Amino acid sequence: SSSPVLTIDGPSGSGKGTISRRVAETLGWHYLDSGALYRAVGLAAAWEGVDLDDDEAVEACARRTRIRFADDAAGEPRVFVNGQDATDELRLETTGAAASSIAAKPGVRAALVDMQHDFRQPPGLVADGRDMGTVIFPDAAFKVFLTASAAERAERRHKQLMDKGVSVNLDSLLGEIIARDERDANRAVAPLKPAPEAVIIDTTGIGIEAVVARVLAHVHEGG
Ligand code: C5P
């Protein structure tokens, strides 16, 4: 499909998820949370006791894992992994770490390509991840890269988890986030980095609404 795509890449806690959802809602476009796919595979591998050092076994797991997105009655997005509502478990930092580990495997990334392309449907798609603008939708008309200081990203994740009733230590969360970003940025395949033509927005100290407005302005200006 040649529907327009807006890619929003960046590290964990940069505000990608919230901002991408709001922008998609405003534009009336579809939304792809690609991180949820890697998280789902990490979780399914853990459930099934797959050896994370066995690349072929993890790739096979990625190919057989069924992932479905659906909003609940209150309009809250839920994610089902092999038929089970895994929304809350998917958000845990332990799942994020598992996702980052399996996401470094080329076979796992290849297994998830078609699923991501299928989200490109009229009237358009907002795609959130690490390699949306560089690898998955290189022809996207609109590309944004969000950043924020590590301290602020850890605080945002901390607040998100607290809101979900999950209590974690802020300092250890900061350490985990820095380690995960380092792994994502330094891996050989599809590393976290802005596409050359991406608009880079530093969201440190900036409210969600202001960032949403800047992203929408980028789209309305024609990329
Ligand atoms: O965005 P989120 O924190 O949910 O992503 C979880 C992990 O999945 C990331 O740390 C990264 O390793 C991996 N990921 C990826 N490519 C994407 C999206 C996520 O490698 N497009």
TrEMBL record:
Keyword entries, A-Z: ATP-binding, Cytoplasm, Kinase, Nucleotide-binding, Transferase
A biological-process GO annotation: nucleobase-containing small molecule interconversion
Binding site for ATP: G10, P11, S12, G13, S14, G15, K16, G17, T18
Gene3D superfamilies: P-loop containing nucleotide triphosphate hydrolases
Cell compartment(s), UniProt: Cytoplasm
Enzyme class, first EC level, given as a word: transferase
Regions crossing the membrane: none
GO cellular component: cytosol
Catalytic activity: dCMP + ATP = dCDP + ADP; CMP + ATP = CDP + ADP
Disordered: annotated span: 1-17
Name of protein: Cytidylate kinase
Gene: cmk
